[in-house]
Every structure is written in C-alpha cells, then in structure tokens.
C-alpha cells in the first residue's frame, strides 16, 4: 500500500512538473500566432494605404478628365469652323483623342495657306 501511495505521489508530482512545460509550449505557440497575426495586419495596412493612393489618383483623373476632353473638343471644333471643316467630327476627335488631335490640328493649320482679305481681314480691321 505504501508503494502505491508513493507511486501515485510520484505521478502527481511528475504531472505537476510537466503541466507548466505544457502551458509554456502552449504560450509559445500562442505568441507565435500573435506574431504572425501582427505581421498580417501590418501587411494589410500597407496594402490599404497603397489602394487608397490608387483610388485618389483615379478620382483626380475622373474629376479633371471629362472637362479637359470637352475643352479640347471645343478648341478643335472652333478651329474646324474657322477653316470650313466638319466641326462635329473635329469636336469628337478632340474630345476622344485630346493631345494627338490638337497636334494633328496644329500640323494641318501650319500647312494651310494664309487667308488674305475676305471676312478675316474685316474682323481684324
């Protein structure tokens, strides 16, 4: 009977001594998970900042884009009317192809012969 009590006592002491080790390994595992989660949160915050910057850039593009396209189109249409070309065609080309159309327009304008006399001279005088 004493031998049984000694073995139960020894087993109990052994379990008590092993329990903190198990708790420590569980804490280490939890700390590793917390570290991983912190890394994930940090990564997600960086991604969120990048997406926010991209959204701001797109907002700027769509705020200023359409009014500028209309201005390019109006400039091209005005030039087309003054040179007796199709104003609607040049308006839409200017609105959709912006800078390229204006460069083509300036090239065409430089190759047109100057108008001497007529209505343009009357407007100037």
Note the main attributes of this structure.
125 residues, 0% strand, disordered C terminus, 3 helices, single chain, mainly alpha
Order of helices and strands: HHH
Beta-strand residue fraction: under 5%
Q: Count of helices?
A: 3
SS-based structural class? mainly alpha
Query: How many separate domains make up the residues?
Result: 1
- Give the assembly state of these chains: single chain
N-end to C-end Cα span: 131 Å
> Which stretches are poorly predicted, pLDDT < 50 over at least 5 residues?
120-125
Form type? rod-shaped
Secondary structure tally: strands: 0
Quick one: biggest sheet? none
What proportion of the residues is helical, as a percent range?
A: over 70%
Please tell me the overall pLDDT. 78
The radius of gyration is: 40 Å
Word description of this protein:
It is a single chain. Helices cover 90% and strands 0% of the residues. With 125 residues, it is mostly helical. It has one domain. Helix 1 (2-82) packs across helix 2.
